[in-house]
Write a structure and sequence with these properties.
Length: 118
Amino acid sequence: MLRKLYLVPVLALFVLPAVARAQFEAGNWALQLSGQGSNDKDWESGQFSINADIGYFMTKEAEIGVREGVVWNDGGSSWGLNSNAYIDYHFDMDRWQPFIGANIGKFCGNGGTTSSFG
């Protein structure tokens, strides 16, 4: 019986997006948080990253925002911070909302500092 309860969060991952509505309006805010990590079996080396994205819809199609990220590798011997400003154009196709965009940003870490445009 207890094993069946483990299926509830897994099923929620598939059911909730199916009922979600992705119709953006001018003035809406969007927030996305993500992260991941891994290590070897002896916990001697590992890596993780954390990312955040906050955006504001100027119209129902045009979004501007900032993306921030932190990366750490191999016991702290390698790290990096990235910051990007972006503008995205969302195509309104009912539930499917593809987008195209551009960003400009900077990466800082123990390997140096670089600027990028993409």
